[in-house]
Amino acid sequence: MKLVKYDICVFTNISIINKRITNLKKTIMKNVVKIQEANPFSTNRRGFLKISGLGAVGAGLLFAAGCGDDDDPVIYTDQKYPGIRNGVFDLGGGDLGVLTYAYALEQLEADFYTKVVNASGFNSNFSVEQKAVLTDLYNHEVIHREFFRAALTKALPNAGSQLLPDLAFEYASVNFNSPTSVLNTAKALEDTGVAAYNGAGKLITNPDYLLLAGKIVSIEARHASAIRSLINTNSADFAGDDIVDPTTGLDVARKPSQIISEVVSLDFVQTPFTAQFLE
Amino acid sequence: MNILKFLESFANEDVLNAKGSRRDSFGQFKKIGSDMALAAVPFGLASMALAPQKGAAATMGLAETPISALQLALTLEYLEEEFYQTAVDTIGLIPLVGRERLVFEKIAQHESAHVDFLIAGLGADSIAKPTFDFTAGGLFNPFGNYQQFLALAQAFEDTGVRAYKGQAANLMSTPALLTAALQIHSVEARHASEVRRIRLQKGWIVGNDRGGLPEQAQAVYNGEDNTIQAGFNTSTVNGIPAGAGSESFDEPLTGAEATAIASLFIV
Hints:
The structure holds 2 protein chains of 2 kinds.
Chain A: H1 5-28, E1 34-37, E2 49-52, H2 74-77, E3 83-85, E4 88-90, H3 94-117, H4 122-125, H5 128-155, H6 159-162, H7 179-200, H8 207-231, H9 256-266, E5 273-274
Parallel strand pairs in A: 4-5
Antiparallel strand pairs in A: 1-2, 2-5, 3-4
Chain B: H1 2-10, H2 13-17, H3 45-50, H4 56-62, H5 66-89, H6 99-122, H7 146-167, H8 175-198, H9 218-221, E1 228-229, E2 232-233, H10 244-247, H11 255-263
Antiparallel strand pairs in B: 1-2
């Protein structure tokens, strides 16, 4: 399963060509996010899932992988570490890949709520209760993001190149001055977070990491419940049949590739990244 | 092999949907502490005294295997199921219409589903339903006093969230079980948030505040004020109030701690 440098260089060169083609296509198909399945040059990896972001190719994330006389082989010989592959940041695999994936989701949530509480109409358009809940969610998600940043910086052998950079986000479909728009987006993000952590738990091999994920997912579920309750107070939507199967009483669990597709379809993440090693 | 049976049951909807004969089945669950003067014993202390006793309850407290983890889960789900079903059926307790009726009927439905799910999954390792006393020996009156019902509901949901979290590592060897337990865990958290908000509390636990519950419930909240996560101090994030740190992470209960809390309500 190991890649040799030569293969990486081939990948990188092909990737550069592919990228140029992709960029050309982008100029034609503006604002279309694509999920490209299956790298045709790789037969030994499953589910290559490439997310092409929106015009963010120059966002600083896409610097070319070195193919010359680089003597540090760590990122190339261990496929599982997060880092630049084929010119795009890959979330990696294994426990650190799962944590990096969670970090990406927490970056999105933290960024979203930062924009929510700083919107010009936040004080005037939102009820006291809505403001209290959304402010708490902002606080919690920023803490989650900073926790992952710190934990991954400590856990990654070479955080300088392996720590997921700050992703760029845009929310063209969200009206931050509209409680309805904000709450519905929050509901999607929180439910997605719950499903993501529920689905990723079994991919974690270190019990300490599993416990940390468990400590966070129940907060996401508490958030989702509160947001749903704010949207439709006189109802059982806090754990509605759309999200909790009434026969089994089970919440949603989705694997990373499904979650990433869902998140991409929201059209918020502008920075390209890949998740080649997460199922 | 019980684990295999459990895994198979996931693919067998008939099994999952079958109510089965759990109400008349005999299990390994033994009565514990019926002679204790529980009314005087706070949550947690009760079963520290009870822990050395023999029987499944003591085994349950160890909860170090997938089976024992699920047996603990089933005990807690039995407790919640009977608690909510009794409340929903008690005329004059929960308002007949409106939010709270819808909420508690939904929660009762979920807890019943969890019980059925775990019984089906545990198969021969299932345990019979204990006899519950939700007054805890006369300490509470949840079916005659709505505010006490709400307070105990909060305590049970927050306990459930913490207890499942504490069992996750015991299920790592059985990924399908782990995923199912996580899927129940987040439902308990959704319940906890809604019950807390009905009580005009935040949906998340603030420090180790028991939110107006009687002091006997403090064991449910002890340790929730932790602010150090993998060496990171959650209370010192730039620009964020210190109190948000412990709010943003829920903490686990050990099997022994969860058993101790449940034991207060087991005759």
